[in-house]
Design brief:
The chain is an all-alpha fold. The chain is globular, with a radius of gyration of 21 Å. It has 7 helices and no strands. It has 2 domains: about 120 residues, no CATH class; about 30 residues, no CATH class.
């Protein structure tokens, strides 16, 4: 049986994958009409401001978030784009998201902000690339490289046993 402490990082990765997939589908729908027709019934050119540009951001950065490549930066961009959509399109109609049709934009904005704060999780290309780098992908012995990486982390790890500002 797996250790239950290993489940939250995997859950975070699955959350990131699903949110990124949903955003990429939203952007693809806006630009191409695939996998479903967009809400307004017609696709937009990628250069149309603001909806076409938003579709490009949603598609490109949604895929990046989904695969876990440049996750934090991509999530910040998408969080800001969804906040912009909420405040420029929905907020003027009513105060609450349920009343102004902005629930999706608000949920996506906060979801991407959460992903930007907590990171991609272990099931991400960023994590895979970090593991490859720490395993000695530069041609050195992997045991020596991993040992030196652990030693470097110990040297740079902050001392959490003392209170801040106390020597």
């Amino acid at each position: 049986m797996p250790d239950l402490r290993s489940l939250p990082p995997i859950g975070l990765s699955l959350y990131r994958i699903v949110i990124g997939f949903l955003m990429a589908c939203h952007g693809a729908s806006t630009l191409t009409g695939f996998p479903v027709k967009p809400y307004n019934g017609h696709t937009l050119a990628p250069t149309t401001w603001p909806d076409g540009v938003a579709g490009v951001l949603q598609l490109v950065f949604g895929v990046l978030v989904m695969v876990g490549l440049g996750t934090r930066l991509s999530a910040i961009v998408l969080s800001g784009a969804m906040a912009y959509a909420y405040f420029t399109v929905h907020q003027k109609h009513a105060l609450l998201p349920m009343a102004n049709g902005g629930e999706q934009a608000a949920l996506f904005s906060w979801s991407f902000l959460l992903i930007a704060i907590v990171g991609a999780g272990p099931l991400a290309l960023d994590a895979l690339m970090a593991r490859v780098r720490s395993d000695g992908s530069d041609g050195t012995d992997s045991a020596d490289s991993a040992g030196s990486a652990r030693a470097a982390r110990r040297r740079t790890a902050p001392n959490r046993s003392a209170a801040p500002g106390v020597d």
